[in-house]
Amino acid sequence: MKNKLIYILLSASILFASSVGIILASGDDERSRKGSWLSSWFDDDDDDEHGEKKRVKNNRGGSPVLASISAAPPEFIAECGSCHMAYQPELLPASSWGVIMAGLDNHFGEDATSDLQTHQQILSHLNRFSAEKSTSRLSRRTIMRSVGNRVYLRISDIPKIRHEHEEEFSKSLLKRKSIRSISNCEACHIPAPQGEYDEDYVRIPR
Amino acid sequence: MRFKFYRKARYQVFGFILVLMLSLSFGFRAQGQTPVSSAAKQVLESYLEIVRQEKPEFSGFDAKSGERFYFAEREHSRKGDSRSCALCHGDDPKSIGQHFTSGKMIKPLAPAANIERLTEVKKIDKWFRRNCKWTLERVCSTEEKGHFLTFLYSF
Lengths: 206, 155
Fold this sequence. Notes:
A: mainly alpha, 41% helix, B: Cytochrome Bc1 Complex, Chain D, domain 2, two-stranded antiparallel ribbon, 4 strands
């Protein structure tokens, strides 16, 4: 009787242990995609790169998180979001996007060209939601009022945006490894990939 | 007496489960030494063929040469800064890297740490083209690329 109980316990434990082994092993395959709960024990810092899980709220000015976000084709995120965050179309007028897209073979010292079909898809996404077509406060008040007739290749060069960041430049925060560049919007604007740039959500990393 | 026995048995079973769990999970993890993706296999085979056309005696790609290539620093002719693959992909291809210019985090390059890596021929070609140009101001040779991918699979 006693022996029987021990055998039952033993076989149950073997089953349990092997299934745990299998879950751990298969968790390996999934961790970069989903970060399964088990393998996340073994992972330190995998998926907080985009701050996706952080809170996002519509800003109080009544403008929702930028309209292009939900319409962004995966090609746009994959191509324009690999070397830096995928800056939303609302951040520059179509004239700027046109020049940027025409010069991808020497894009800030990088080769950012892609195949023709992807290129067209990205260009039409950028044109569809560009700053002058957007009703967001950020596009209308901050960007369009500031650009005038000039064609900026950097969002961070637009006078009003530059002005917002004067302090950051003067404190040479950009030398910090965690920031490195003013183009690294999401380092300080945690929900930037969701189109939220309100100062309420700014946090300067150390 | 009866009670004591059960307590002992309970501890034994507990210990057994622990040992089994540990050994099995380690066993599975070790066994799961990142399989080479079909895209990478295809790429590596075609590289080998190309290299063998020029060097029939070529013995195959090796991780050590790939590692040397990964860390090799080269001064940029115009910018004067020192560049290497490790500059953006980090000293450990298994951990997160950071884009040297923009500061963006880059997911690990080694498939052992990121199974999405090296799974698409087009993507592998594209990034070799871009990154070799930026880092070395030239294309990478077929041999260099073969060693490099072999290095990434050595984790």
